[in-house]
Amino acid sequence: MKTTKRLGIWMDHSTANLIEFTDDKAVAIAVDAQVGEQDEPLNPRDETMIQNKEQNELSDYFKRISEVIKDYDEVLLFGPTHAKDELNNLLKEDHHFDEVKIEIKPADNMTENQQEAFVKEHFNIAG
Q1: What is the gyration radius of the CA atoms in the chain, in angstroms?
Q2: Which tens digits make up the pLDDT trace of 62-72?
Q3: What are the pLDDT digits (tens) for 38-55?
Q4: E strands of 12-121, at which residues?
Q5: Quick one: how far is CA 44 from the chain centroid?
Q6: Beta strand pairing call for 15-22 and 25-32
Q7: Where are the domains of the chain?
Q8: Which fold has domain 6-122?
Q9: pTM, whole model, 2 decimals?
């Protein structure tokens, strides 16, 4: 019987903590967005350029997370911002993820231990 691969992702627009349980222990990997790490605009035209750059950086952030999600059967996206919804909308448009069961839950800021407990409880992982 095939083992279901499950992944929990706590995320906001600046960082994502990817949590997988293997042999009843959690393995977490952080992915940083690197969005908005530049100087203030000098003129209004620069602001549009900065917004475009931020959008491209956010798109890259979601793409890096998506590459990891491809290898899982079930994914839980949770966190305090709309980043999880934005990522989910992108995944729905991509047929590579048609077979991946993706669930979304709101969650506050959490410590790593709280994130692991949240994922463990969601997937009913014993231990």
Answers
A1: 16
A2: 999 999 999 99
A3: 555 556 667 777 777 778
A4: 15-22, 25-32, 74-79, 101-106
A5: 32
A6: antiparallel
A7: 6-122
A8: Nucleotidyltransferase; domain 5 (3.30.420)
A9: 0.85
